[in-house]
């Protein structure tokens, strides 16, 4: 059983719904002074974990932590391995220019970097942009110069719940996580990249599940 830990914004949303229910996402966003798009992932998690309900053309309702709720139990049983997609990986000797081309060919926002076949770093579009506008010769700079290195990476494992992965993405404000397999080689712990789990992966799952259960949340 996963012990659910809500972040501060999710706790505030729960309080708002309790006080104003039924309440629309537009009103919630105004009370939080944020855009509706900002709270959509939080609302999805709160619905899927069973603490909120969404009624089309009515709004959000507080239903409480009920461990026997079907949707909450379903989410706890869905693993990262069930939703992960193929990772986009380059060797750390790859030039920044070649990595940028590769990123756009694969249409992703993050590239995982490996050394000797094991995860050594991560590079995002923001990292590439900073390097490119700095006047550097991106055809000569290897990607390992600009990447975020191990052990400062946020990762996921195939046997983890997607709820845990979703919380990690939101709390760390990142777009994707490398899904890894932990190995011990010469008494050193290394990670083999076996997939990626992204906000897109999880959002698609939540939307599909939400549509099945609630008939669509567009007007909530």
How would you explain this protein's 3D organization?
The protein has 220 residues and is of the alpha/beta class. 42% of the residues lie in helices and 22% in strands. The strands form three sheets. It has a four-stranded mixed beta sheet. A three-stranded mixed beta sheet has the order 7-8-9. Strand 8 (176-185) and strand 9 form a beta hairpin. The longest helix is centred in the last third of the chain and has 16 residues, at 199-214. It starts with 7 loop residues before the first helix and ends in a 6-residue tail after the last helix.
Keywords:
220 residues; alpha/beta; Arc Repressor Mutant, subunit A; CBS-domain; 9 helices; 9 strands; disordered C terminus
- Which architecture of the largest domain per CATH? Roll
Distance between the termini: 29 Å
User: Rounded to an integer, what's the Rg over CA atoms?
Assistant: 20 Å
Global shape = elongated
Number of strands: 9
| Average pLDDT figure | 86
Share of residues in strands: 15-25%
Number of domain units: 2
Could you list the spans in which at least 5 consecutive residues all have pLDDT below 50? 214-219
CATH topology (fold) name of the largest domain: CBS-domain
Structural class: alpha/beta
Helical fraction equals 40-55%
Which class of the largest domain in CATH terms?
Answer: Alpha Beta
Order of helices and strands: HHHEEHHEHEEHEEHEEH
CATH superfamily label of the largest domain: CBS-domain
What is the count of helical runs? 9
The description of the largest β-sheet is:
4 strands, mixed
Biggest sheet strand line-up: 3-4-5-6
């Amino acid at each position: 059983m996963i012990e659910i830990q809500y972040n501060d914004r999710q706790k505030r949303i729960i309080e708002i719904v309790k006080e104003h229910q039924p309440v629309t996402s537009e009103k919630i966003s105004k009370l939080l002074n944020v855009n509706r798009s900002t709270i959509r992932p939080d609302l999805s998690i709160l619905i899927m974990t069973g603490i909120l309900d969404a009624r089309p053309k009515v709004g959000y309702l507080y239903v409480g932590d009920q461990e026997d709720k079907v949707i909450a139990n379903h989410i706890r049983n869905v693993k990262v391995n069930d939703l992960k997609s193929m990772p986009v990986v380059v060797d750390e000797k790859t030039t920044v220019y070649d990595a940028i081309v590769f990123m756009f060919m694969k249409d992703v926002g993050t590239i995982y970097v490996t050394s000797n076949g094991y995860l050594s770093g991560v590079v995002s579009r923001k990292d590439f942009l900073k390097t490119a506008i700095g006047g550097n010769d991106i055809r000569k700079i290897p990607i390992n110069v600009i990447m975020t290195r191990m052990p400062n990476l946020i990762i996921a494992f195939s046997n983890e719940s997607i709820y845990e992965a979703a919380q990690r993405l939101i709390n760390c404000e990142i777009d994707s996580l490398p899904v890894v397999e932990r190995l011990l080689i010469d008494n050193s712990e290394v990670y083999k990249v076996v997939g990626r789990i992204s906000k897109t992966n999880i959002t698609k799952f939540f939307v599909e599940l939400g549509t099945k259960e609630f008939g669509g949340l567009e007007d909530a």
